[in-house]
């Protein structure tokens, strides 16, 4: 299938590695011009170089900390300078620390809300006018399967990412007539550094070997394994593609069947 991404211009947030990096690499491999972003210039430079060398698309990068003041506008403006326009926006943010619903202080909630929710809304609003004017655009927000089935000890993630569900659905209704799709992609246990960190934290908390924790986690997944970044990124690439033009307002799960709800 031709995903019709050759020459499309994409901005992918938090994409020096992990899920965001995998998505950016998949888009570049389909011929898109991608701008990746994150806090580590060394990681970004290496990732952009690898994507460009592989081709057929190419990658540039912008160093950005989404928790900084005016970060959304600064990132948008820098990406526009490199791309000349943004056809595809992939919203992706790092996860907050694990914990229960009663642990975070009000200041911690506010700080995470600004980084994980408000920054996503702000940069989307900056990208939308051009998409609507051109009558073509894709907004994809990476969240978590925790918005469908809350994940124990990830209360902040469950709560804040759930706020984006209502926003994304509402936005899809508002911009659909302009041929702009708005979807959310929900990873389950995809093997990334973040998942390794969560498994390590669980092992310490439960005083168990990490392999026992991983085995117990795999046992809850019908496919019996963690997903790969490449599998997840392929799903994302389809959702922002030309052929996915009639898919909008959806929550798509990529979790090996782990979520119990229908």
TrEMBL record:
Native source organism of the sequence: Kaustia mangrovi
Protein name: SDR family oxidoreductase
Source taxon at top rank: Bacteria
InterPro entries to which the protein is assigned, alphabetical: NAD(P)-bd_dom_sf, SDR, SDR_fam
Classification via Pfam families: adh_short_C2
Gene3D superfamilies reported in the protein's UniProt record: NAD(P)-binding Rossmann-like Domain (3.40.50.720)
Lineage: Bacteria, Pseudomonadati, Pseudomonadota, Alphaproteobacteria, Hyphomicrobiales
Family designation: Belongs to the short-chain dehydrogenases/reductases (SDR) family.
């Amino acid at each position: 299938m031709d995903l019709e991404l050759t020459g499309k211009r994409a901005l992918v947030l938090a994409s020096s590695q992990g899920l965001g990096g995998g998505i950016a690499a998949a888009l570049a491999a389909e011929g898109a011009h991608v701008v990746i972003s994150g806090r580590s210039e060394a990681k970004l430079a290496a990732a952009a170089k690898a994507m460009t060398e592989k081709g057929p698309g190419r990658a540039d990068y912008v160093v950005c900390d989404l928790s900084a003041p005016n970060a959304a506008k600064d990132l948008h403006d820098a990406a526009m300078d490199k791309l000349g326009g943004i056809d595809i926006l992939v919203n992706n943010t790092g996860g907050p620390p694990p914990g229960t619903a009663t642990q975070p202080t009000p200041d911690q909630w506010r700080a995470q809300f600004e980084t994980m929710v408000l920054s996503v809304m702000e940069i989307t609003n900056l990208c939308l006018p051009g998409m609507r004017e051109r009558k073509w655009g894709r907004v994809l927000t990476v969240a978590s399967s925790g918005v469908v089935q809350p994940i124990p000890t990830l209360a902040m993630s469950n709560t804040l990412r759930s706020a984006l569900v209502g926003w994304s659905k509402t936005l899809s209704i508002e911009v659909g007539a302009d041929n702009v799709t708005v979807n959310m992609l929900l990873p389950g246990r995809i093997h990334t550094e973040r998942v390794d960190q969560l498994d390590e934290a669980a092992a310490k908390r439960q005083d168990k070997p990490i392999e026992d924790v991983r085995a117990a986690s795999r046992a809850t997944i019908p496919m019996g394994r963690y997903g790969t970044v490449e599998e997840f990124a392929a799903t994302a690439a389809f959702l922002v593609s030309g052929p996915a033009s009639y898919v909008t307002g959806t929550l798509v799960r990529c979790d090996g069947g782990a979520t119990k709800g229908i």
